[in-house]
Amino acid sequence: MTISVLVLTLNEELNLPICLPALAWCDDVVVLDSHSNDKTEQLALASGARFVQRVFDNYAAQRNFGLNVINYKHDWLLMVDADEVVPPELVAEMREHLKHGTGNTSIYRMRRKDHFLGRWIKHSSGYPTWFGRLIKIGSVQVEREINEEYITDGDVGYLQEHLYHYPFNKGMSSWIDKHNRYSTMEAKLLLEGGLAAPSFADFFSSDPTDRRRAIKGLVYRMPGRPLAMFFALYFVKGGFLDGRAGFVFSVLRAFYEFMINCKARELKVISIKDE
Known about the structure:
- Strands 1, 2, 3, 4, 5, 6, 7, 8 and 11 form a nine-stranded mixed β-sheet that branches. A two-stranded antiparallel ribbon has the order 9-10.
- It contains eight helices and eleven strands.
- Helix 5 (172-191) packs across helix 8 (243-274).
- The chain starts with a strand and ends with a helix.
- The chain folds into two domains: 3-165, Alpha-Beta Complex (Spore Coat Polysaccharide Biosynthesis Protein SpsA, Chain A), CATH 3.90.550; 172-274, no CATH class.
- The protein is an alpha/beta fold.
């Protein structure tokens, strides 16, 4: 197999027993840890993975460290989060692409199936969203501190199989804690103008990442964004078809947007006082 795997972790003793066995096909798994204080290290080493630690500052820096500092056995790197599972179908598709040559392709994007309350929340999760995860080492850099963007001069390929994502494996409290941290980062970016105004052409780009960035740039400038998010996920995207899980998740996403707004206002007040 010509693929190495990088797993980012922070206190993932509940997720690693699900994530790591699904990587048994890989002979070069590296766990990049943000100084966990649970059994993450023991579980990683017991699985045969290499274990590296780095103090976390932001997601782009963490991923760039994984891309540029750690040495790997293979030329291609699959980036996986600890709450994700790589199914055999995706492994087979990656093998097939790399077996027949990649030309100038330096990154492959794939989608995730988000699971909540025992089911795939296809509609309320905003599916499909494409993520750059299979990367030719030395050809890609990561930008943006949160909800990172992958920059490359090479071509972009697309894989049809999915990662399975279980964001609530560690419980609702863990999800809320994580998104509390995320909302702080997003509020800082919002206040600092980190979301550029979208261009009209981006809304019709053939690149789904460009379209998503344009939509997000527009949404962040809308009044009543939390309510708009709920309406978009639950009614427009069809979250009601996901049953109770779809309703609850749509509410959680709306609340996340509300936290970003509140924190951005708070930071703005603080900055004015400091002037």
